[in-house]
Specification:
Blueprint: E1 9-10, H1 16-41, H2 46-74, E2 86-87, H3 95-99, H4 103-127, H5 131-158, H6 161-193, H7 195-205, H8 208-233, H9 244-261, H10 271-296, H11 301-324
Parallel strand pairs: 1-2
Length: 325
């Protein structure tokens, strides 16, 4: 039998003792997840953190009730059985994965957790033969619905309009600092800094394949350099700019994209066709940078366009002049 499959049980094969043990471990996990969300959000999103602390305490109360029922029926030795031990049982996303997706995604994940728990307790109650256990599981299924309703009530009480606006502002700020700003810096660097070597090579050799190879090397090299520079320059603790690896990833990828945009046309074998397309791509890249600056950095569009277009035009002219010399 294949290892890894033989160790997983079907839910329908679990005894009531094991179902209760599974419910206990699931409540423990959910309480820890909610507590982790509260700790994670405490500094920047205090109102949402307070909601998750309340939810963690409710999960702990569910766990205590389940343990009392288990001890009354089966004694004080609770078998170790967890979600991952049961084939097809609902899973939880890792906290670090949800954290990376922002406050709204965390709220959505919490709502999904409540739905999963409700479905589990409803199913468990239907298969239980002990009246007291069946009643408890049914009560817990209803409690999960009440829990969701309570969370919505807490949101209305704690997430006032001012608090929600403040949290949304902070979420947007974090998004800009962690993803947009380093990504924009990378796109600007990749789009502008590679203009000179690519077009110098193009006009010096009029060989599209050589030009493409130079552009590819310049884009990848710049992307790797910018990514590591961004990640190593600031750990985000003092500046509050977020994870260095997220920023490094955003900067490195966008730098590479910025350079490849006007390198890829040189896969076309006709020199002037490739060059005219590359010029058009450069124009689009520079105006895209100006648009991003205007939308996310609140830079007036025409000022951003002037800065980017003039700077890009100067670098482009340098590359053409050197290559034609």
């Amino acid at each position: 039998m294949i290892p890894g499959f033989s160790s997983r049980r079907r839910y329908s094969d679990l005894s009531e003792k094991e179902v209760l043990a599974l419910a206990i471990s699931s409540e423990e996990d959910d309480a820890r997840i909610y507590a982790s969300y509260a700790d994670m959000l405490g500094d920047n999103f205090p109102a949402s953190a307070a909601i998750f602390r309340e939810m963690a305490e409710e999960e702990n109360e569910h766990r205590r009730k389940l343990i009392d029922t288990f001890e009354n029926r089966f004694g004080d030795t609770i078998p170790l059985i967890r979600r991952e031990h049961v084939a097809g049982f609902y899973a939880r996303n890792p906290v670090w994965l949800v954290e990376n997706l922002g406050i709204d995604r965390i709220r959505e994940e919490a709502a999904r957790m409540e739905r999963d728990a409700h479905d589990f307790y409803t199913r468990a109650a239907q298969t239980s033969t002990d009246p007291a256990t069946r009643k408890l599981l049914g009560d817990l299924a209803a409690a999960e619905v009440a829990h969701k309703n309570h969370a919505e009530t807490l949101e209305r009480e704690l997430l006032t309009e001012d608090a929600r606006e403040s949290e949304n502002t902070e979420s947007h700020r974090q998004f800009v600092l962690t993803w947009v700003q380093p990504g924009l810096a990378g796109l600007m660097d990749g789009s502008v800094s590679t203009l000179a070597p690519i077009f110098a090579t193009a006009f010096a050799t009029q060989d599209t394949w050589t030009t493409f190879l130079v552009g590819l090397a310049a884009s990848l090299g710049a992307g790797i350099s910018m990514g590591f520079t961004e990640a190593a320059s600031d750990d985000g603790v003092i500046s509050g700019r977020g994870s260095p690896w997220k920023r490094g990833f955003a900067s490195g990828i966008m730098t590479t994209i910025g350079g490849l945009g006007h390198a890829l046309p040189y896969l076309i074998t006709d020199f002037w066709t490739a060059t005219l397309i590359a010029f058009a791509v450069v124009f689009v890249e520079l105006w895209a940078i100006a648009w991003i600056q205007n939308k996310y950095m609140e830079t007036p569009f025409f000022r951003a366009a002037l800065q980017v277009v003039v700077g890009g035009a100067l670098v482009l002219a340098v590359g053409v002049l050197i290559g034609s010399g």
